[in-house]
Design goal:
By secondary structure, the chain is mainly α. The protein is built from 13 helices and no strands. It starts with a helix and ends with a helix.
């Protein structure tokens, strides 16, 4: 492995750590402000943080800040708005689910692993767009179902939290959001797409916040350091590292597996930073779910080998 590929893998691993720890920040922010307030402020911070990156990347690529043609400008706005609508649904479901867990639950671990099921759900949702689903994905679904049962349902209905169900809906919603990004990503600037989708998510969340919530300045300031991490580090830095890593990593399978470690770091973050550990059965469920996530990302030819 040459130096460039090694650094690319380090960038992807760092992104996974950043995203994993973000679940702890989401858990903490939920103690002070409500769901729509969290995502409105987080998304606006993220979109602003990406502006310097857009300017820098366009200058490096020797391209104008704005697209040359009206059609190209319309396309990037259309892509960002559509992806932003789905991001709004997904991120608010995730934050709302996190806020529903009882305080003694391993919130970061459970929400992190359940969210990561989007890796398995993406190809299944692709069936709606007539995309083939390989045999390893179907196997992954069966394995993930077992892991989810051990994580959430092994103790019966009492072991299933409402937050688990809402976060599972979030994973499904993220699957469609990822497919939407995949549809546009080859035709538009990816960093611009990200900035516009964050801005769209922020505007929609702001409207919902004004309708359903009554945030106060004191609560927002109490949660501000967590919101700052979510906006700048998790969204801005994490997304940048993902772009750099995927651009220079020659193996997309390795790249996707490294990024899926987000769920593992979510569990570790909850344990180290919050002192919340999982039971042996829950850990077993997490391990099985992670194996399903990895299996879903491996090419069918490698599975046969």
């Amino acid at each position: 492995m040459n130096k460039r590929k090694f650094l690319a893998n380090i960038a992807l691993l760092t992104a996974a750590v950043v995203w994993g720890v973000a679940f702890v920040s989401q858990e903490q922010a939920a103690k002070y402000v409500d769901t729509f307030t969290v995502n409105a402020l987080r998304s606006f911070i993220a979109s602003i943080a990406l502006i310097p990156l857009i300017i820098f990347s366009r200058k490096v690529a020797k391209k104008p800040i704005l697209e040359k043609t009206k059609e190209d400008r319309y396309l990037v706005i259309k892509a960002g708005v559509l992806c932003g609508i789905l991001l709004c649904v997904s991120s608010n479901l995730q934050q709302f689910g996190i806020s529903l867990y009882p305080d003694d639950a391993a919130i970061s671990a459970r929400s992190g692993f359940i969210t990561a099921l989007y890796v398995v759900l993406v190809p299944l949702c692709g069936l709606f767009f007539k995309r083939r689903v390989s045999i390893n994905v179907w196997i992954s679904v069966a394995i993930a179902t077992l892991g989810l049962y051990l994580l959430c349902g092994s103790l019966g209905l009492s072991g299933i939290y409402l937050g688990d169900l809402v976060v599972l809906c979030c994973a499904l919603s993220f699957s469609f959001q990822i497919l939407c990004v995949d549809h546009f990503i080859e035709r538009v600037d990816p960093i611009k797409l990200s900035a516009i989708q964050f801005f769209t998510c922020g505007v929609l969340s702001l409207v919902l916040m004004l309708v359903f919530e009554r945030p106060d300045t004191e609560s927002i300031m109490s949660a501000f350091k967590y919101l700052l991490y979510l906006g700048v580090v998790s969204s801005g830095v994490g997304y940048t590292l993902q772009i750099i890593g995927q651009k220079y990593s020659s193996n997309p399978t390795v790249a996707s597996i490294l990024m899926s470690l987000e769920s593992v770091f979510a569990a570790l973050g909850g344990w180290v930073l919050m002192g919340k550990s999982l039971s042996f059965i829950e850990i077993t469920g997490c391990v099985i779910m992670f194996l399903a996530i990895v299996l879903a990302q491996l090419p069918s030819k490698k599975i046969k080998t």
